[in-house]
From TrEMBL:
SUPFAM superfamilies reported in the protein's UniProt record: P-loop containing nucleoside triphosphate hydrolases (SSF52540)
Protein name as annotated: Taurine transporter ATP-binding subunit
Domain of life assignment: Bacteria
Signal peptide coordinates: none
A GO MF term: ATP hydrolysis activity
Matching PROSITE patterns: ABC_TRANSPORTER_1 (PS00211), ABC_TRANSPORTER_2 (PS50893)
Domain ABC transporter: 4-233
Keyword ATP-binding appears in the UniProt entry: yes
Taxonomic placement: Bacteria, Pseudomonadati, Pseudomonadota, Gammaproteobacteria, Moraxellales
Name of the gene encoding the protein in the UniProt record: tauB
Protein family per UniProt: Belongs to the ABC transporter superfamily.
Length: 269
């Protein structure tokens, strides 16, 4: 069983400004859904970069089990907001590229890629060029590329932000289906409150200046989907709606406080 932990993580980019992250502690358990929700500038993406091993904190440590994270590794795969696919490769080549880097032979790569394509419903566009795909399909390829690595932790940086509402909900359903079928841990950053509520067992609310965790909610909406309840039914549940409105008010108040702080700082500058 793999566990990813962040212990007392802090990071500053400038000595004369508030820390980007301050004393962040969190745990990602096996087969869990964790979402970070917060306004722009609260350090969400920076935290993901630290968990992925792309950036080192000033203080604190990230561990996978008992192994200290000192850089990217096979235990964590990342799905980026802009998908970061290789435009000169087609769909199946993009997915299989990581396996090529491991020097696997074509006869070893093809069955793995074919299975992943089927999992994310892209078998019909396996030979398509990346520029021929819709935004939702590109993100499916990005997720497939993460899955092919067999990493126990999938980190997603606002992967559905640019998608229309219908496609976004389809992608949310895909994440839930993969969580159920693959038993992986998903860590997702979002600005979307509904998305955060639906795709988390553990919803973490962050605030900015300094970037810190102010609230953690343990939720069961994803488990209700796992038990067979449709997504539209979950999103129309009074409890879901009430939590959505409460979180909206919290984020609105945080934003107002940050705007006041910024105005005060400019006045005394």
């Amino acid at each position: 069983m793999s566990i990813l932990t962040a212990q007392n993580i802090s990071l500053s980019f400038a000595a004369d400004k508030p820390p980007v992250l301050e004393d962040i502690n969190l745990t990602l358990k096996e087969a869990s859904l964790t979402v970070i929700l917060g306004e722009s500038g609260c350090g969400k993406t920076t935290l993901l970069n630290i968990l992925a091993g792309f950036q080192q904190p000033d203080a604190g440590v990230v561990k996978v089990d008992d192994q200290v994270v000192q850089g990217p590794s096979a235990s964590r795969a990342v799905v980026f907001q802009d998908h970061a696919l290789l435009p000169w490769l087609n769909v199946e080549q993009n997915i299989g590229f990581a396996l090529q880097l491991k020097r696997l032979k074509e006869k070893e790569i093809k069955p793995v890629v074919d299975k992943i394509l089927q999992t994310v419903s892209l078998s019909h566009v396996a030979k398509a060029n990346i520029w021929e795909l819709s935004g939702g399909m590109k993100q499916r390829v990005g997720i497939a590329r993460a899955l092919v690595s067999h990493a126990p932790f999938i980190l997603l940086d606002e992967p559905f932000a640019a998608l229309d509402a219908f496609t976004r909900e389809n992608m949310q359903q895909l994440v839930l289906d993969l969580w159920i079928e693959q038993q992986k841990s998903f860590f997702l950053i979002t600005h979307d409150i509904e998305e955060g509520l639906l795709l988390s067992n553990q919803l973490i609310l962050m605030t900015a200046r300094p970037g810190k965790i102010v609230q953690t909610l343990n939720l069961d909406f994803a488990n209700r989907y796992k038990d067979g309840e449709p997504i539209r039914s979950i999103k129309s549940d009074p409890q879901f709606i009430q939590l959505r409105e409460e979180l909206f008010e919290q984020l609105r108040e945080q934003q107002a406080e940050q705007q006041l702080f910024a105005s005060s700082s400019e006045a005394f500058a």
